[in-house]
Specification:
By secondary structure, the protein is of the alpha/beta class. It contains 26 helices and nine strands. The strands form two sheets. Strands 1, 2, 3, 4, 5, 6 and 7 form a seven-stranded mixed beta sheet that branches. A two-stranded antiparallel ribbon has the order 8-9. It is elongated and about 100 Å long.
Length: 596
């Protein structure tokens, strides 16, 4: 990794994984002398940080069970070559000093264990000798020595608490020499070390996989014939890919998330690398796999695949049919990698049919089963079916420019009853009082026929009496009576508040979460009023939800605009099944027409 006088200066950083200690093979490891400049603060890691580092390494080994642990990556060590051949340690001195102390302790248990690096703190004359000898009688000479001595005490205490301190030391030695790496990030010659340190530490945001991969790709592309033009071309493509992935609509389509990342292009590389077999990818797993890929195939082949992957995903996003089919599958749990695998070796039309088949398998429902889905036990399946109805409604629109907004949908919608269900949902007295005030206002604003006037007046009197009670003095029984009476007031004459009517798909829709919180268990008339108001204000309302509250699924002659009754539910359910029918199981898998 060292620079020679006859080598051309690099314009990009050099980057590679390095083991903490020398292993049995020829893998690079940390070695040399490291200089910690005065612009950095002294050593300050405390008990928690030291113990966490030891715990993380031990836990990673335990999670591997009897198998060989996967490579484990610590945060980057950022260095700059000095004129005397040593390394200026720009970032990572807390970590590297702690690793130094851990390996020093391990050496007390294993005779042939030795270190291959030393550290010197510019602000502490004699610090190199202090770290090498660990003469803790000097711990009170200055604050840095004190914290270093304290950290070593924590390390010794941690090993003493293990079932067998010597075996624990052997295990740590094995880990540090075989599968615990730092990311070695060597800044180009001529870099202003102080400015680099300031940038790295300003926000304390760790380097991402993609930032490390970028340094790796650009350094390799520069090394191939020293063509700076190729580096500039890749850098420009990189910026374009990152910009594309930052489009909120594209990002939600790919990830079923609206959460921003510091760098979005990481997602591209994650889709190109194997899974780690764990719930979450270990730190810098993606970088390590890309590094292996480039080492095996070369940078040119790797980057060609990156460009192709970006082109494939943007092509799917721009194709209106694929956008809706793929976007739906991602929302219900598929990954981009699974769908890329599905598309391989298939023509465009065959891939389209495969997406329909995959959606059918995902749903795994017949028409009868759709009719039997219920809010509680089938919450997820109800949501999937209603989302599909909405996506298909947009895709089937005569407006070929219309597109379902997965960005507006993710993290913002939940399953809700169209007409209120029961009073048990109210756990707090304040929630019950808010419900009563809102519905009292709606009752007073509504027109009631003479034969209902007495019942309406009685309900209002009961509401006023309930609201007049002191806080903490209301009782749930009287609220429940009022609740049921209000529901009956706003229910269709032929309505029967059975589980089938209340919790089936005919009484369910996807509503914005903030609307749900405002109108939890509200009657249809009140929710309709709010949805129409949002629609008039230009808010994004899911198309089928909008149709429900505008009563589009009920024939005009049968409409009672303020009520949601059995006829409305039946018509809505029929429309739903009709819209998703091609994705339902009918006996054996039916032949499915391919969308042109």
């Amino acid at each position: 990794m060292g620079e020679h006088a006859d080598q051309p200066a690099r314009s990009e950083a050099t980057i590679e994984p390095r083991l903490v200690m020398k292993g049995d093979d020829d893998k690079p490891f940390i070695q040399g002398e490291f200089f910690v400049a005065a612009y950095q603060r002294g050593y300050r890691w405390g008990r928690d940080e030291v113990r966490q580092l030891l715990k993380d390494i031990k836990t990673h080994k335990r999670e591997a069970g009897r198998g060989e642990p996967t490579d484990y990556y610590l945060q980057p060590i950022v260095v700059l070559k000095r004129d005397d051949g040593s390394w200026e340690l720009v970032d990572g001195q807390q970590r590297l000093t702690t690793l130094f102390l851990i390996t020093k302790y391990v050496a007390t248990k294993i005779a042939d264990s030795r270190l291959d690096y030393l550290l010197t703190y510019e602000t502490r004359q004699g610090s190199r000798d202090f770290l090498e000898t660990l003469d803790f009688s000097r711990r009170d000479e200055n604050i840095d020595y004190y914290h270093i001595a304290q950290a070593y005490d924590v390390i010794a205490e941690w090993f003493d608490k293990q079932p067998n301190a010597t075996q624990a030391a052997i295990n740590l030695h094995t880990a540090l020499a075989n599968w615990v790496y730092v990311i070695w990030y060597e800044a180009p010659p001529g870099t202003d070390a102080t400015a680099l340190f300031t940038r790295l530490n300003r926000d304390r945001i760790p380097l991402t996989d993609s930032e490390l991969i970028k340094a790796l790709v650009l350094s390799n592309s520069g090394a191939a014939g020293g063509k700076s033009g190729r580096q500039q071309e890749i850098a420009a493509q990189w910026d374009g890919f990152e910009r594309d992935l930052r489009d909120p609509q594209f990002w939600a389509f790919l990830t079923r998330s609206s959460t921003e990342r510091s760098t979005h292009i990481d997602f591209l590389f994650e889709s190109m690398t194997p899974k780690a077999g764990l719930r979450e990818r270990p730190r810098y797993w993606t970088f390590s796999k890309v590094q292996e890929d480039i080492a095996e195939r070369g940078m040119a082949a790797f980057w060609r695949d990156v460009v192709e992957r970006h082109g494939l995903l943007t092509g799917w996003f721009q194709d209106r049919y694929l956008y809706h089919r793929i976007g739906y599958l991602i929302q219900v749990g598929d990954s981009i990698q699974e769908l890329i695998d599905l598309s391989r070796s298939r023509t465009h039309s065959v891939f389209q049919k495969a997406l329909v088949d995959r959606t059918r398998k995902r749903l795994d429902l017949t028409t009868d089963k759709v009719s039997l889905l219920r809010y509680g036990k089938d919450y997820g399946k109800c949501t999937d079916v209603l989302l599909l109805m909405n996506v298909e409604t947009v895709l089937g629109s005569s407006d070929i420019g219309s597109r379902f907004s997965f960005h507006a949908y993710v993290d913002n919608w939940s399953l809700e009853h169209i007409h209120a269900q029961n009073s048990e949902a109210f756990e707090k007295e304040t929630e019950r009082r808010d419900w009563l005030r809102t519905h009292k206002k709606k009752i007073e604003e509504s027109h009631w026929p003479p034969d209902q006037r007495a019942d309406v007046d009685e309900i209002i009197d009961k509401i006023n009496a309930h609201l007049a009670m002191a806080d903490g003095k209301t009782d749930e029984r009287s609220f429940d009576w009022i609740f049921r009476q209000v529901l009956a007031l706003f229910s269709a004459p032929d309505a029967d508040a059975t589980d089938e009517d209340t919790h089936g798909l005919g009484n369910l829709a996807l509503l914005q979460r903030d609307l749900n919180s405002k109108l939890n268990n509200a009657v249809f008339a009140l929710k309709r009023e709010q949805v129409i108001g949002l629609d008039q204000d230009g808010a994004y309302i899911l198309p089928c939800t909008r149709n429900v509250f505008l009563k589009y699924y009920t024939a005009a002659a049968d409409q009672q605009l303020s009520l949601w009754g059995p006829q409305d539910q039946a018509n809505y359910l029929t429309a739903l099944i009709d819209k998703v029918e091609r994705f339902l199981i009918v006996g054996s898998s039916p032949a499915d027409e391919v969308h042109a």
